[in-house]
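re: that chain from earlier
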Amino acid sequence: MTEFCQCFVFFCRGKISDRDCRMPIMLPVDVFERQFPNRAAQSTTDCPVALLCWHCKRVDIYSPHESSPYYDPAMLSKECFLTGDTECLSQLRCEGGNCEFRAPLFVTWSADTTVEEKERALGSWKWGNTGAPDGHSIFWPFRHTK
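^ sequence. v structure.
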């Protein structure tokens, strides 16, 4: 897929050689809205998402909701040029007993990425400094680098 579409643009919180990465991470609004179809009717409900920065390989949780602990005021909503397909790989869940926190993990792959390349990529991703709002850890379903 190569097209313009409306996106949320978040900025990576990772570090590379002690410098902030801050690379833009785009999430198409239509992909977000398909995951959270009732968001417009429930405007006070937080809808966090986990996103990968391809530059530093860090996965973090972000939210476009201003009252969310995952919100970054630098986040933008703008038309962007996409060069791949965004897919939901997994629903990340809180490891706490009664916690219902969920965050879908979205990744945008180039159109020619093979299944084998996707599997190899999963092992190189770093889990960011994130947790559920109640402080519990979030289960990471893939082998990963710390």
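The helical segments are 29-35, 115-122.
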